[in-house]
Every structure is written in C-alpha cells, then in structure tokens.
Amino acid sequence: MKITPYRRHPEQSQPPYLYEPYCATVLRAPRQPLILLPHTLSEITGPVYGHSKITETDNDLTRQHAGEPLGERIIVSGRVLDDNGRPVPHTLIEIWQTNAAGRYRHSHDDHPAPLDPNFTGAGRALTDENGQYRFVTIKPGAYPWQNHQNAWRPAHIHFSLFGPAFATRLVTQMYFPGDPLFSYDPIFQSIPDERARQRLVAQFDLATTKPEWALGYQFNIVLRGREATPFEGK
Ligand SMILES: [Fe+2]
How far apart are CA 225 and CA 83, in angstroms? Predict the structure, then answer.
C-alpha cells in the first residue's frame, strides 16, 4: 500500500519548541536535533476513536450540573477546515477552560479564586458533515501563572482535535478579541507570524449571538497550509 505522509506546517506559522520568555519551553524543548519518523500505516490510519460515548450535554458546559454556572454565557462555534478549505467532518473536538473567576477544577491550580460547583470546564463535540461544531459555555477568566513577575494569561479556551490518527492530534488555544493581556503573554507571542497569531483570536459574531441569552463567537480551525491555525508543539 502506498503511504501518503501528512504535510508539515509552513515556517513561522507555528511556535518554536524553545521560546525563552515562555519558561516551561526551556525545560521541555528538545536539545538534540529531531529525528523525523516516517509516517507508516499505523500513524496514518489509527487509532479510530469511537463516537458513541458523546452525550447530549457534552457540548454544553452550562448544563453538566444541577444548577447553572456563574459568569457570562457564550456560544463558541465554527468549522474545522483542511488546507483547501474543505470541511473536516466527524472529527472529535475537546475543550477545557477555567471558570468565570479564572480557576481550573484541577489539583494543580492554586489560584485563590473560587471554584464553581456548577462548572467542570470540560466539553467535547463532533463536527457535523459541514465541519461545523458548537459549544455553549461561560467566558473563562484571566489567571495568574508564575512564568515571570506579574504574569497573567489572557482568557482562553484550550482546544484539542483528534483527526483519524495519532499523527493528526492537534492542540491549541482560542482567545477573545481585544484582550489587553495579549502583548504581555509569551505563549501568544511565541508564534512568530502576527497574522498566524490573530488566527487564534475568535471573532465576535452577532449572527451566532442569541438574543436575551448569550454572546456568540466564531472560531474556525484550519489544519494545514498557509492559513493554518497555530498549534502547540508542532
Ligand atoms: Fe489555560
């Protein structure tokens, strides 16, 4: 069988492994030249993730508990596209985020902000036949981290996309327009190309906004090519 490997990303559109202002990369960036493994049948085709376990409230993070979470209810919707602008259907998207106060429900998060008993902060969805996905959630808060003096992350939602195989898993972060913390954030700034950086910022969209209920944002994810979304560790 002829194996067609996945294409690599264009220069400058992706963050480097080592970006010194982002301190964790100093510890984890490879110190030896990378050995590119050939894509064989197992990287190209497997594993296949079952879709049966997604439940009705998985893409609505405001309905996973007895009550509603506190915060600003939002809708985040968009399409997953390949480098030719074609939709990528039936791909699994997972998200995770802080609550409205900027706190993760995670044992490593010691930010002195309240947990919300009605918010876990994790969801997932499959794209439909048009590559479309939709989440209902609350707007996450900014949070401090100890990367440098007075370091705060801009509000963001983590995204993971599972394609059909291990080699196609992609992880990135979605930001909100106009955040004053962009210019201080080494994770955002680690993407060399300014235009690529802006592709991580969702757009406010009145058509997605539901009257009397929730603000809407559009966030398209392009997997490869000149318009590719910047991903982590690519
Ligand atoms: Fe985060």
Answer: 5
Beta strands in the chain (DSSP E): 73-81, 92-96, 122-126, 132-138, 143-145, 151-153, 156-162, 170-175, 203-204, 215-218, 221-222
Write the pLDDT tens digit of every residue in 71-115: 999 999 999 998 788 999 989 999 999 999 999 999 888 899 999
- Are 164 and 45 in contact by the 8 Å Cβ rule? The answer is yes
Helix (H, G, I), strand (E, B) or coil at 77: strand
97 CA to centre of ligand 1 in angstroms: 6
Predicted TM-score of the model (pTM): 0.91
CB 4 within 8 A of CB 222: no
Could you tell me the distance, in angstroms and rounded to a whole number, from the CA of residue 172 to the centre of ligand 1?
10
